[in-house]
Amino acid sequence: MRVATATLPAAKPRAVVVGGGWAGFGAAWNLSKTGGFGVTLVDGSPDPGGVAGKLGESSIELGVKGCWRHYGNIRRLLDNELELPVRDIYNDFSETAFYSKRGLEVVAPVFGELPRLPAPLGTLVYSLNKFTELPINERLTAFPLTQALLEFDLDEESYSAYDSLSFEALCKRAKVSDALYDTFLAPILLALLFVPPKDLSAAAALSVLSNYALSHQSDFDVQWPRVPPSEIFLKWKRLLEESRGAKFLNSTFVRRVLLSDNGKEVRGVEIDDGSGSTRELGAEVVVLAAGANAMPKIVTASGLESIRGLQRVHELSCSAVTATRFEIDGEPMPLRYPSNVWSTGGEVAGTFYDIGALRGGRPGVVLEVDTYNAADLLGLSDGDLESRGREVLSLENSAYGTSSGRVQATARVRNAALRWTPGSHGATPQLSPEGAPRGLLVAGDLVRNGPGDFGSHLGARGLSQEKSLVTGLRAGMVAAEAFLGKDASRLIKPPLHVEPDEPHISAAKAALTKARASGLLPNNLFIH
């Protein structure tokens, strides 16, 4: 007589996600989607989503972050999965103004509302009459950068070659005019990547210019948020907890990754919640989505610095950011444009916003000034930051310099974002670092940017929320396939790729590749 025996179900593999921004939440979202993982998200911040400073019920998010038209994954997530419609979270697309010491320099129109022309013709044609001071002959000096834009990411060799050069040096070799560089290129890159072009990898700069301005006519179009970022992350967290069974440990730091005796597998993390002692949290998967400041510390403490794919992360550095929010007394003083980029020369630049206009309040009452590459400003008092903020607002209207008002809140962050310096490409980790123990993955905007890692970033590059989300979602998919099998990973909807190159751009890249192979054109024209 056979005796029936019950087979106990295998315990779920456990996953720990380190970091609570777009990358961390994206990883937790896909890890939990199959129901096959027990997921815990650990974040040093008390609040989800990376809010930098709070005052009562209001908040300051460093560098008020918009949703660009090409952020397809964020749009799909909000509309279809979080049930937070983009139209409710973000304003309509709007113009962006650029200011220098001379005042208004150019206004970027909403390109997507204009008849579409082949890239980058639409961007150039529709901005012809938008510059107030910079003549057309100065703007045309950017034309020699065309070959660099076509070839910098044809392959890893080209990307690394352009990564070894600063964008400032590239512009000098291409004979871009000083006026165009100082008035437009340097400020926009500093605003997008938080690094002055003399310290910025040419490959990183070209990838951002391509993604945000030149690949497709409408790529520079942006919607600014109606609501604080916490509204997205609080809803997201609630869904993860209530519908997916995920756990959150906020105000908690991961000190190190724990490995098996042979060092070939992850077995958990050591965490510190500020109580004075540490404890272990078991896991078979660890996704490091903690950013370029925390990553090297965790790698070193874990004994992972000898691993080929992580041995240079200590070379990465971060840029500082300050934010100052004002409340104007008396009559409101609306900005002409609710979102603006500013530069007064030198190595700092930033953005300023009419928060009331963006968030459905009274325009001209609450304004915010953000400053990037701001390490030298971190030690300033609130009063000094207020004075500097008023100087910035005075670029738009000198009356802001003497207006009556008060500072609502300030924020200072020393290590706000990765600096894409020349040579940093080889130091950035891959999503699955070479030689890393099984179960260890990396997500976030520091994931390697080049064409060899397209499967990790899917074309979303730079310091973007879209790239952070995509790499987090991809990390979740990679872990699901590795630990649960392909059938389980098929339950996860793959992230969207960026829109492919337009046919004429693809044809130009193919012709350039053929010309380089036949010796008609040198490889990487501006590098030699």
What key attributes describe this structure?
single chain; 528 residues; alpha/beta; FAD/NAD(P)-binding domain; 3 domains; 7-stranded mixed beta sheet; 5-stranded parallel beta sheet; 18 helices; 19 strands; globular; disordered N terminus; Zeta_carotene_desat/Oxidored
What does this structure look like?
With 528 residues, this protein is of the alpha/beta class. It has 18 helices and 19 strands. It has a 7-stranded mixed β-sheet with strand order 7-6-15-16-17-14-18. The chain has a 5-stranded parallel β-sheet with strand order 9-2-1-13-19, covered by helices on one side. A hairpin with a 5-residue loop joins β11 (266-272) and β12 (278-282). It is globular and about 65 Å long. It starts with 13 loop residues before the first strand and ends in a 10-residue tail after the last helix. The model is unreliable at 1-9 (pLDDT under 50).
